[in-house]
Design brief:
heterodimer; A: 294 residues; mainly alpha; B: 321 residues; MetI-like fold; two-stranded antiparallel ribbon; 13 helices
Chain lengths: 294, 321
């Protein structure tokens, strides 16, 4: 076999190349984590976390107002986005087997991959032109980003509930709407929580739409119709500033933000794995029962 | 849809059926509301862009002037910047992503597959503004110190690598975008490779093919349109990405073929000029947003159709064998 050595060599090289691609992609991730921790940690102390942002040169400047602003923005966004997303997901999963359902699903998929700056423009056009740069316009933009994420995960988790549970509930005479709410939503609960956390993690780091809507603020502002501070905005503005102390604060804010976002992602991951296991277990028992009875 | 009984008995029950109808129309109403909201937003956006559309017409897309003093605003430099940075991102990011997808779906031992996939997906979880921060303070010294001098020395005679190593330019933006599209392209490609029926692989292996030949002949050719769809999806992400690009591209409203010159994308010009824009300039920025919207919509619909077709086609063939 003359060509065999050449072919084996090619095979080895290709495998190494593929592994190399994985390692190359992990370098930025690891580098970002190391940089954010080593550059950010010196900036983070109690004053930093509790004081409001001040101009360059102040010794007691912090990101307390930005943390509060981010939490409020995400809370308002969740209040608008989560119910709309969950109900849309329920519709598509339970009643969506028609052209309208498919249309909703299609646009949800499209919206999920949409540039967030365009969504920021939407919110600007609709709300900022009326009330000015404000918390509510920022929350509205973030809510629109949340809807497709929540709708898609809701739909998926409802699809994972075994059909036999639906049928059992219907066979007992439970009306369809209660079947959906009780059996399905309670069985798909972990999925709903996962979707909500995922959406929150996504919008917590969104910056572009906030530049166009919430704008940022150096003070402790919590009013719905006032401009409000947010962590990503502080990172952006300070990173672009020429002052070393502001740049250090950008890294400190980045550390706080990345910790929030990554821990949410890890929680989601753990929940999803547990859910997949449960799903497989349930499916197995139902299969076993069906085969026994058959 | 999930096997709900469509028989007559279900519909006959009086009380339950009224409540059922109410519930159904309530959730349907919410779904319709979301669609209506989208429609309202798009039309409001177009309405706000009208002054700019009337002032500049089709020349908005083909002319290169951006001059607040003369109230002249056109978008070609930004369209150009978006195209160039996205092309760099695809050229660097897609081959790496395909390598990752091949490793994760064909080569990786089962024990590392899960954790590695998770780490790759974490790249998508890092907020865009943190990518920008990292690019300014970590990637830039690397580019100015070694990468760009090397490119100037070896490829400086081409029009693409003329100029000085400054590190805040289209190349930096393209590299950051490449990193950011990797998780999307890699995971969708991986999905479409994993959807290739094992019988395909077994057939190739049984003919004596090596793992590499199996992957090339049986897996890649089969998953081709899925990988293509994944690439388009990555393109969609690169086109609309704002913060990391705004922070790295240098924000110059010029058209230059050299990757080492600064530029501006459609998304970054909006983010950069937002605070001080009003009147016609604001309307022009919104029109750029409308153009970005149309581009993103086209790209995403196309990607969705490509991926949808693969995912639909796979079970049919797989189940039939």
């Amino acid at each position: 076999m003359k060509g065999y050595n050449v072919r084996r060599w090619k095979d080895r090289t290709a495998s190494l190349l593929a592994l190399g691609c994985v390692l190359v992609a992990l370098v930025p991730l690891i580098s970002i984590l190391i940089e954010v921790i080593t550059r950010g940690a010196p900036a983070v102390d109690w004053t930093f976390l509790t004081e409001r942002t001040k101009s360059a040169g102040s010794t007691d400047s912090g990101i307390g107002n930005a943390i509060l602003g981010s939490v409020l923005l995400v809370a308002w966004a969740s209040l608008i986005g989560l119910p709309l997303g969950v109900l849309t997901g329920i519709y598509v999963s339970e009643y969506g087997d028609n052209w309208f359902g498919r249309t909703v699903r299609f646009f949800n998929d499209i919206l999920a991959n949409f540039p967030s700056i365009v969504i920021g423009l939407f919110a600007y056009s609709l709300i900022v032109t009326v009330v000015g740069f404000s918390m509510i316009s920022g929350a509205f933009a973030l809510a629109i980003i949340m809807i497709p994420i929540v709708a898609n995960t809701t739909e998926e988790s409802l699809r994972m509930v075994p059909n036999s549970l639906r049928e059992a509930s219907l066979a007992l005479g439970v009306p369809r709407w209660r079947t959906v709410l009780k059996v399905m939503v309670s069985n798909g609960r972990a999925g709903l929580v996962t979707g909500a956390l995922l959406a929150i993690a996504r919008v917590a780091g969104e910056t572009a739409p906030l530049i166009l809507t919430a704008f940022g603020n150096n003070f402790w502002e919590t009013g719905l119709t006032e401009p409000v501070a947010a962590l990503p905005l502080v990172i952006f503005r300070n990173a672009m500033s020429p002052y070393a102390d502001l740049q250090e604060q950008a890294w400190g804010a980045a550390l706080v933000l990345i910790m929030m976002v990554l821990s949410l992602n890890v929680v989601v991951r753990l929940l999803t794995r547990k859910r997949l296991k449960n799903y497989k277990a349930v499916k197995k028992t139902w299969k076993a029962r069906l085969s026994l009875s058959g | 849809m999930m096997g709900w009984s469509k028989g007559k008995q279900g519909r006959k029950r009086g009380r339950a059926s009224l409540e059922d109808k109410l519930f159904k129309y309530a959730v349907m109403g919410v779904a319709a509301l979301v669609l209506a909201l989208l429609w309202a937003l798009v039309s409001k956006l177009v309405l706000d862009a009208l002054p700019s559309m009337e002032a500049f017409g089709i020349g908005f897309l083909t002319s290169t002037v951006w001059d607040p003093n003369r109230e002249l605003y056109t978008a070609l430099p930004f369209i150009f910047g978006t195209l160039v940075t996205s092309a760099v991102a695809i050229a660097i990011g897609v081959p790496i992503s395909i390598g990752i997808a091949i490793y994760l779906s064909e080569l990786a031992p089962a024990s590392v597959r899960e954790p590695l996939s998770f780490l790759i997906e974490l790249l998508a979880a890092v907020p865009s503004v943190i990518y920008g921060l990292w690019a300014i303070y970590t990637l830039r010294p690397l580019l100015t110190g070694s990468v760009e001098p090397f490119l100037i020395d070896t490829l400086g005679w081409t029009p693409f690598f003329e100029g000085a190593a400054f590190g805040i330019d289209k190349l930096a933006a393209g590299i950051i975008l490449a990193i950011m599209i990797i998780p999307t392209v890699a995971s969708v490609s991986k999905e479409s490779m994993m959807a290739v029926p094992d019988s395909q692989r077994e057939a190739a292996l049984s003919l004596g093919a090596t793992k590499y030949e199996t992957t090339r002949m049986a897996v890649l050719s089969y998953a081709r349109s899925g990988i293509f769809g994944a690439t388009i999806l990555g393109l969609g992400r690169a086109v609309g990405e704002t913060m990391a690009v705004t922070m790295t591209i240098g924000n110059a409203n010029i058209i230059s073929w050299s990757l080492l010159d600064p530029g501006q994308t459609m998304a970054s010009v909006i983010a950069n000029n937002w605070g001080e824009a009003d009147g016609l300039m604001l309307s022009s920025l919104i029109e750029i947003g409308v153009v970005l919207f149309v581009v993103a919509l086209t790209v995403n619909v196309f990607a969705r159709l490509m991926i949808g077709r693969v995912m639909k086609a796979v079970p049919m063939t797989g189940g039939g064998l």
